[in-house]
Amino acid sequence: MADILIRRRGSMKAKLTNFSKYLSVLESNDELSDLQVLDLESRLSKFEKLYGEFDTLQTEIELLSDNPDDAHADRFKFEEMYHNLIATARKVITTEQGQRRQEQTSAGSVSGSEVTGGTRNLQPIMGQLPSSRSNLEFPFLNSSVDYAGPILIADRKGRGCKLVKSYICIFVCLAIKAVHLELVTDLTKEAYVAALKRFIARRGKPRSILSDNGTTFVGSDNQLRAFLQNSNLSYDVAQEGIEFNFVPAYSPHFNGVAEAAVRSTKHHLKRLLTLTHFTYEEMATCLTQIEAILNSRPLTPCSPDPLDFCALTPSHLLIGRSLTSVPHPQMTDSGNISRLERFQRVEYIKQHFWKRFNTEYIYLLQQKTKWSTTTGDIKVGSLVLVKDKALPPLCWLLGRVVQTYPGSDGVARVAELKTKKGTLRRAFNNICPLPLS
């Protein structure tokens, strides 16, 4: 047992050596390209997870070792080299980012007319892809939600029917972009909780849900938390709550996956709701068909192989085939194929789709087409203006930064501001720093 653990630890030490050689090559260059910086950031995010695996493995080795002092010495050597490599990698990234910020900020200061007429807001660099977007997990385990509408539906068929407002609750899987549509009759938290229950009954309970700061979502979060804490449920069941995450106000790009699903849903609805109004049952049927269409969209460009007619879609990862395709007839098993081999073939097909997802789709998500550089930074204590699209610049609130919230890559993109109307939390693209120096 101990020999197997020691061999696994040796493979982890080899990863340290390989990463050290990689950093040495980068440090020998006078200047790094954008592609090299992105590659280093991606490697660093994966390398940081190595210590957790080593700590668990080394603890088992120390418990089985006859000489604990030698085992602790191995831990010390590994940790020393690991932390040195982390510090070196972050230094390289910080140096490159600092040089680019200096080139951008050295262009000139902001004049007084620009503060009122052409206000400059900050735009940080695009962050790393979250683990919820790249990990191979169950569909809808990490989801995003948004509303579309309102749409008008008829309360009954025939003449004299009344039109009532309804809305579409859109759930999107953050990993594979699969879509789930639910028709709701109002924007109350009770209607959202009911739609969430229907979603969980069909897709399974998600671990986390990302949404904006709408009163419907925040109210349902408070209602579910109060129910789990105050009801007579057992302790184990009460701990299985859903983690609700809310994006900053007036920052829809933080929830861009759901916003894109809303746009795609409206694209199909506009072609249905042109000359007539549907009843609730008809609208629910149409939304189900639209859901199938959205889940049959290719995730990646079609293969150049002339024999590859199948593009990877979310439905392949949900049910193993396209939702809009005709089911294949059951084939008779040959006499020389055992049941185990048939099962292995089914398992191979499933793993094939996951492999294509990992190699094709995740690669496309890693490409950054914008926000490759930052336009500045905001520090605690800075005096800023809070952008408001409904007001002219001279009426914007004046605030002071009391706290910033850095992401997993160490870059802050959200700040907490103290204004005369209270404390606000805004993204950097809605904050305009005042040039006081």
TrEMBL record:
Residues 104-119 have a biased composition (Low complexity). One of its GO terms (molecular function) is nucleic acid binding. It comes from the Eukaryota. GO terms for biological process: DNA integration. InterPro entries: DUF5641 (IPR040676), Integrase_cat-core (IPR001584), RNaseH-like_sf (IPR012337), RNaseH_sf (IPR036397). It holds the Pfam family DUF5641. Residues 135-322 form the Integrase catalytic domain. Residues 96-126 are annotated as: Disordered. SUPFAM superfamilies: Ribonuclease H-like (SSF53098). This is Uncharacterized protein LOC113500227. The lineage of its organism: Eukaryota, Metazoa, Ecdysozoa, Arthropoda, Hexapoda.
